[in-house]
Specification:
- This protein has about 475 residues and is of the alpha+beta class.
- It contains 16 helices and 16 strands.
- The chain has three domains: about 5-290, no CATH class; about 295-410; about 415-475, Arc Repressor Mutant, subunit A (Orthogonal Bundle), CATH 1.10.10.
- It has a nine-stranded mixed beta sheet. It has a three-stranded antiparallel beta sheet with strand order 5-4-15, with no helix packed on it. A two-stranded antiparallel ribbon has the order 3-16.
- β6 and β7 (about 110-125) form a beta hairpin.
- α13 (about 415-430) packs across α15.
- The protein is elongated.
- The structure holds zinc ion (ZN).
- The site of zinc ion (ZN) has 8 residues, from loops.
- Zinc ion (ZN) binds near residues 20, 37, 40 and 41.
């Protein structure tokens, strides 16, 4: 491609406060349609909103975690539009004076660290949800989501590839999870991103015309949509035509975007100050209090894992990307005392299961304590590698303590020397052909005996012990 790609993201994240932004309704995903709303979040005439202080606190917390400056004075505006998902015909947002501004987030692209500017983070309310009938007979509206608190994180156009856009979204998701301001459940729409993208000829400083793609709700969709849009714009420019400033809808199934033909296309929002909410003043003490409540963030934790536990940067990066997983790693390392072993097992057995079954297994019976106990058995040589996998499987199913599983399934490594020696003698005697082969110099026969003996010991033999005794036993025939 003869162009540089320029991307900025607008990320919407629902805050996990217990009540909504301007009323006492429950802020919770799902529920029977229209059961979690009241005259305030339905925007009935004569009602008055009151700002939920927790919303302000969470927005500031997110801002501080993304190195933003916090506005001592901010205010709310009405963004006017007429659409059934917003019965009062305006959305309350912070258009002119956002609560956080001028921050940055560092992302890892390959072996490089790249700093992405955060232009602003502002507070706003979510709208209701339209459910369109599949038979085209009409639409239904669920206002449970009306008035759910959101923050919108607007980045500077510092991203230069679809991959960087994906990595930034992953990084921000992790920060929001660590600070516990959002649960970031993308499948439930509590984290979604708009991609603004333009192209400019390589080496040029003149920005190109940008398009916007709305409501992408997976990392994969963000990366694919950006890739497809960059290619589309390149084709348009290469053929001598113009790119138009427009909003496009990404169709993840078809893998293409189309211009939008609804409210977003021709809207002139005519923002003006919200008269029903007073401006927000934030003092230093409040900010300092919030700053003190910010936990160790993923980047810091990763560095600590590398330095303190000596695990590879790549592994540390992947483990710290998920706070629950990182907590499991730390607890298990403490219990088993061998962080490298724990990290290896997370990178293989746990990641494999997360890929197959999703993150749910991190919220199941598995925890840092029992995982650490299993690996301690393994590290001490009490159970074999295969048995450790078996214990994890059973634990995920039954929730039993590792020691109970090990005893019940009789998984302890068999080290009783006379028993092992007898088993070896018996196997050697009952396989005369293999013995002849061994005596005549066919070394493959040794492996055959090993396999037979381990099977006889039901996989519980200690391979090094078996090997040692078998060598002695065979020596007698040479
Ligand atoms: Zn309400």
């Amino acid at each position: 491609m003869n162009y540089d790609i320029v991307i900025g993201l607008e990320i919407h994240s629902e805050l996990k406060t217990s009540s909504k932004i301007f009323c006492g309704c429950k802020n919770e995903f799902g529920g029977e349609p229209n059961t979690r709303c009241c005259p305030v979040c339905l925007g009935m005439p004569g009602t008055l909103p009151a700002l939920n202080k927790r919303v302000l606190e969470y927005a500031i917390k997110a801002g501080l975690a993304m190195n933003c400056r916090i506005a001592g004075f901010s205010k709310f505006d009405r963004k006017n539009y007429f659409y059934p998902d917003m019965p009062k015909a305006y959305q309350v947002t912070q258009h002119s004076l956002p609560i956080c501004y001028d921050g940055y987030v560092d992302i890892d692209v390959g072996y490089e660290t790249k700093r992405i500017g955060i232009e602003r983070i502002h507070i706003e309310e979510d709208a209701g949800k339209l459910i369109h009938s599949s038979t085209g007979q009409g639409s239904l509206i669920d206002y449970n989501r009306s008035g759910v608190p959101l923050i919108e994180i607007v980045t500077k156009p510092d991203l230069n590839s679809p991959e960087e856009a994906k990595i930034l979204l992953e990084t921000i998701k992790t920060i929001l999870e660590y600070t516990e301001v959002s649960d970031c459940k993308m499948q439930e729409g509590s984290l979604r991103a708009d991609v603004n993208l333009s192209l400019r000829p390589i080496g040029s400083n003149t920005p190109g015309v940008r398009t916007e793609m709305k409501n992408l709700n997976s990392f994969r969709a963000v990366q694919r949509a950006a890739q497809a849009e960059a290619e589309r714009q390149a084709r348009v420019l290469d053929s001598g035509q113009k790119v138009y400033k427009e909003t496009r809808r990404w169709d993840d199934h078809k893998g293409e975007s189309l211009p939008m033909r609804d409210k977003e296309e021709v809207m002139d929002y005519r923002c003006f100050p919200e008269p029903d909410l007073p401006p927000v003043y934030v003092d230093e003490d409040f900010i300092n209090e919030i700053q003190a409540s910010i936990p160790e963030l993923p980047g810091m934790r990763r560095e600590r894992y590398i330095n303190q536990y000596g695990i590879p940067k790549y592994d540390a990066g992947l483990i710290t990307q998920n706070k629950v997983l990182a907590d499991i790693f730390e607890k298990a390392s403490e219990v088993c005392g061998n962080p490298k072993l724990v990290s290896n097992w997370i990178m293989t057995e746990i990641m494999k299961r997360m890929n197959e079954e999703g993150e749910g297994i991190l919220h199941s019976y598995l925890n840092g304590d029992n995982f650490g106990q299993i690996l301690l058995f393994l590290d001490k040589g009490d159970i074999t590698h295969a048995a450790a996998i078996q214990v994890i499987d059973v634990l995920l199913e039954t929730g039993e303590e590792p020691i109970v599983i090990v005893e019940r399934l009789n998984l302890r490594v068999q080290r009783d020397e006379s028993l092992v020696a007898n088993t070896i003698k018996q196997v050697v005697n009952s396989n005369p052909q293999a013995l002849d082969d061994y005596i005549s110099g066919k070394k493959k026969a040794f492996g055959f005996f090993m396999g037979k003996i381990m099977a006889e010991l039901k996989g519980r033999g200690d391979p090094s012990q078996v090997k040692e005794i078998l060598t002695k036993e065979l020596q007698r025939y040479l």
